[in-house]
Specification:
This protein is 28% helix and 23% strand. The protein is an alpha/beta fold. The protein has a two-stranded parallel ribbon with strand order 1-2. The protein has two helices and four strands; from the N terminus they run E-H-E-E-H-E. Helix 1 links the parallel strand 1 and strand 2. The longest helix has 17 residues. It is elongated, with a radius of gyration of 16 Å.
Length: 78
Amino acid sequence: MERQNRLHHLNYPIPIAYHLARSWQQAWVGNRCYNPHLDDLLLLVEHPSVYTLGRGADAHFLKPEAYRTGWAIHRVER
């Protein structure tokens, strides 16, 4: 039986913290890995400006000006 692809979207109307948006995304991916028959989801959110550091990045890659912006710095697994 062929899977019928359906797309749902979640458009959160106000800016939210990056870590909250990221946790929603990670939870959906986890659910999707556990149950591949779940529908697709497009998650549209706005969060304050942040710096993300991937697996190969180190905090010394950021220029000193980055620390004066007040933006949060987050480690991500990408």
